[in-house]
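Q: Hi! Curious about what NADPH-dependent oxidoreductase looks like structurally. Here's the sequence.
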Amino acid sequence: MLKMKVTLIAGSNRTNASSTNLLRYIDSLLEAQNISVQFVDLSELPLPLFSPDNWDFHPNVKHVLEAIEEADGLILATPEYHGSVSGALKNALDYITGNQVAGKAVLSVSSAGGPLGVSSLSHLQTIIRNLHGINCSQWISIGYGSNTFGPDGAPIDVGMKDRIRDAVGSFVDLTRKLTPIAAAAN
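A: Let's find out. The predicted structure is below.
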């Protein structure tokens, strides 16, 4: 039986970023459902600045693109910087072509230093639409992110935990509907 494959991309270049911690928690939720996960942490896998003049890609870029191509669905996490996505994630997304994301379910996730990261999520969903991906009907935004996780990596707030589980459940359902391989596995 083939497993659903999901690629998670942590779009912060900050050590111990709350958006990356949130993505690691989501990783544990997916693995508990027997979903194959590939975790790409851009703080550990730096990419050269994208240039449309150079299509001879660095090995790190090739790794990211392969992870995206092999995935049935994507979860992208970003900190909110100045009302938008991080430069590290935007740079990674600039390497992607529409045929690598077209028709795949995508869940957008953000963490903000303030109450919410809605602007970054709106920008991220616009980018996904332009790559012909299918945005999940839900998204996840946490505010004041550095204070939200316990030592076990799980969110401290029960309501937040429930919202994250609901959004991940919605994403998994959408991915199953869009992916014949994932649907056949169930």
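A: A fun detail: The chain has seven helices and six strands.
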